[in-house]
Amino acid sequence: MPESQDGQFPVALVHEAIAASRPDETCLIYRDRRLTWREMTDRTRRLANYLISQKLGCHIERDKLAGHESGQDHLAIYLHNGNEYLESMIGSFKARVAPFNVNYRYVAAELQYLLDDAQATAIVVHSRFTPILADVLPMLPGLRVILQVADESELPLLPGATWYEDALASSHADKPAVTWSADDLYILYTGGTTGMPKGVLWRNGDANVQCFGGSRATELDAVVAEAAGTLKSLLSPPFMHGAGHWIAMRTWNQGGTIHVQSQTDRLDPDDIWSMIERERSNFLLIVGDAFGRPLLDQLAKATYDLSSLTVLLSGGAALSAPLKDEFLALLPTVLIVDGLGSSEAGGQLSHVSAGSGATTGTFPLSPENHVLSADLTHELAAGDPELGWLAKSGQLALGYLNDPEKTAHTYPVVDGVRYAVPGDRARLRSDGTVEVLGRDSVTINSGGEKIFAEEVEAAVKAHPAVYDCVVTGRPSERWGNEVVAIVRLREGQTVDDDSLRTEAERHIARYKLPKLFVYVPEILRSPSGKADYRWAKQIAVAADS
């Protein structure tokens, strides 16, 4: 198959072309490793050739498959952040193997479900996770290639596995003897915080533009020419979260350098600010308030030279307006960007805050983004008061792995146009601003009204004593369901329910106010900072009225 299809280029080809234009420049920094683009090319080729030697690759071409089907082997990436994670992604693309992300917080049953659902034939795993993997291997006969990355746990090699570095050393660095295709898959599993995780299938050529921010140029020389090489990105969330490896790949698509913090098993604000100071990072990715609040608290404890930082992007979860204002007060020259996207649609909307007066949940409408009617029959015009669905057209994911019904539901065809409708409810204001109210899957139907959890969370978090908040519903004889706010207070702060309600009432209608506040020492979130709504509902149901 051709390497360029309809003006699109495979991720592998783009990465190699950019690498060839700057072989001795720094590609990635992690702890004591400073890998050049030449070294990254060498390592990813070696990984690809090893996978190919294990008979992994593409077995059925895309044009013979339905959108929910795959004809490739799938490689699970079960790692903390580090060079090996991104090497595994690029190396997979170079072998025509489809990489997918694994949530390293999963217990054995969840891991088994994921690897079985994904039909994984290969896995790259940090040693610390091998005890859980060992528990489920007998139930996964199709998982036949295991590459183990050594770590601080110093656990021995899993039976049947090969050390990652030994696999690379035993392979060769010649360009893999396969023809890369923009049709080959990139698989992104959803977080599963409200239901079972689902594998979203993307053509990697589409993902390179819609998720990885790649060039839309139709000539490879032009793609390389656009890679200025000035971006230095520190990505604080786990790479296993879509926003993490999307911005990593975006950085490489611009010829930039990826900075990986030293502490990868938890959020360490001092580690993050120190690396920005030391390496002169100019771009920082966080995930909403769960990352923003600890980072701000650290700035109150210590002083750092952050003059290199120009952009702070929150992706995957909203950064509330009060925290934006705090960042802007401390870092007045930094642009605060809210990025809204989804596994199913890729990047969608963005909003830039500078100066003061930041907002939460509103975005200017951008091309290929729309608001569809509630019944998914037509597109809403600006100023229509109807609460609709945020949708995207253009280059979209193919569908969910092995699930044609969910694929048809999430990717409806309206007036001959195929859309992605990931599940966010939205209104299109008369000025063209999109007001995003949140995921329909976490709404609360109370007293006949639909209440969006994320809207109530933002209102409660506006109180200065609140460190974090997750909102859910629980059964109520009077209301059908009632709104419950799970609240973590800032250290040393005390507050009563009335005070929280009074603050929240400044931002939302009274019928949306929580009927109950539950105070907890810690709020459970995924490593990527996303709220665990299943946990929140359990807390709410178990709480005393």
Helix share, percent: 25-40%
Number of strands: 28
Oligomer: single chain
The end-to-end distance, rounded to whole angstroms, is 64 Å
The number of helical runs is 16
The largest β sheet comes out as: 8 strands, mixed
Could you list some keywords that capture this structure?
GMP Synthetase, Chain A, domain 3, Rossmann fold, 5-stranded parallel β-sheet, 16 helices, Luciferase, domain 3, globular
What's the helix and strand layout?
Layout lengths: L10 H11 L4 E5 L2 E4 H17 L20 E5 L4 H13 L2 E4 L6 H10 L4 E5 L3 H7 L8 E5 L12 E2 H7 L14 E5 L9 E5 H7 L9 H6 L6 E4 L6 H12 L3 E4 L8 H11 L3 E4 L1 H12 L11 E5 L5 H10 L4 E8 L3 E8 L8 E3 L4 E4 L15 E5 L6 E2 L3 H7 L2 E2 L2 E2 L5 E5 L4 E7 L3 E4 L2 E4 H9 L4 E11 L3 E10 L7 H9 L10 E4 L13 H10 L3
Parallel strand pairs: 1-11, 3-4, 3-5, 5-6, 6-7, 10-11, 10-12, 12-13, 13-14, 27-28
Antiparallel strand pairs: 1-2, 8-9, 9-19, 14-15, 16-23, 17-18, 18-22, 20-21, 22-23, 24-25, 26-27
How would you describe what is shown here?
- It is a single chain.
- It is built from 16 helices and 28 strands.
- The protein has 545 residues and is α/β, with parallel strands linked by helices.
- The chain has three domains: 206 residues, 3-Layer(aba) Sandwich (Rossmann fold), CATH 3.40.50.980; 80 residues, Luciferase, domain 3, CATH 2.30.38; 96 residues, 2-Layer Sandwich (GMP Synthetase, Chain A, domain 3).
- Strand 10, helix 9 and strand 11 form a beta-alpha-beta unit.
- The N and C termini lie far apart (64 Å).
